[in-house]
Amino acid sequence: MPLAVTAVHHRRRALPAARVQSLRQGRESTIGHFSKVPEDAVGSARYRAFMPLPPSLSPDQRQAALDKAAAARRLRAELKEKLKMGSLTLKELLDQSANDDVVAKMKVVSVLESLPGLGKVKARRLMEEIGISETRKVQGLGQQQRRRLLEKLAP
């Protein structure tokens, strides 16, 4: 079965045409970031794992998704501003996350950085001390983590 080369770059440099031809003809083995796949399978879903295609949306669906994302960004920015000004407490925000999907999907580190007196370093240190991953979202916080956060940040 003939083989096709799925990538022609190695360490951000294009391969010489002779090397690509050699790889395509199977005279040379592939190493590193290159992989050989059957020619008839190159376009199949199994071999598109490197870069999935976005879902095909109609223009109206796409615009609705863009509007929804923009509204979520605006709401997150407003919540962070309220935290910064002190008109919203961390406890209120954590309670709100049970009902509001936008709040639930906020990253804990960005919420903590928005609190007055906590910058990037202190927020990360606090999360590490409590045992919260830097990539954790508010909805993923356990009861013990929430309780310890509130205890540490209590005035």
Structural commentary:
- There is one protein chain.
- With 155 residues, this protein is mainly alpha-helical.
- The protein is built from 7 helices and 4 strands; from the N terminus they run βββαβαααααα.
- β2 and β3 form a beta hairpin.
- The protein starts with a strand and ends with a helix.
Strand order of the largest sheet: 1-4
Whole-number mean pLDDT: 78
Distance between the termini: 70 Å
In the predicted model, the low-confidence regions spanning at least 5 consecutive residues are 1-11
Helix content: 40-55%
Number of helices in the DSSP assignment: 7
Shape: extended
Quick overview:
Helix content is 48%, strand content 6%.
Features:
two-stranded antiparallel sheet, 7 helices, 155 residues, mainly alpha, disordered N terminus, single chain
Write the layout of secondary structure elements.
Blueprint: E1 3-5, E2 9-10, E3 13-14, H1 17-24, E4 36-38, H2 59-85, H3 90-96, H4 101-104, H5 108-114, H6 120-130, H7 143-152
Antiparallel strand pairs: 1-4, 2-3
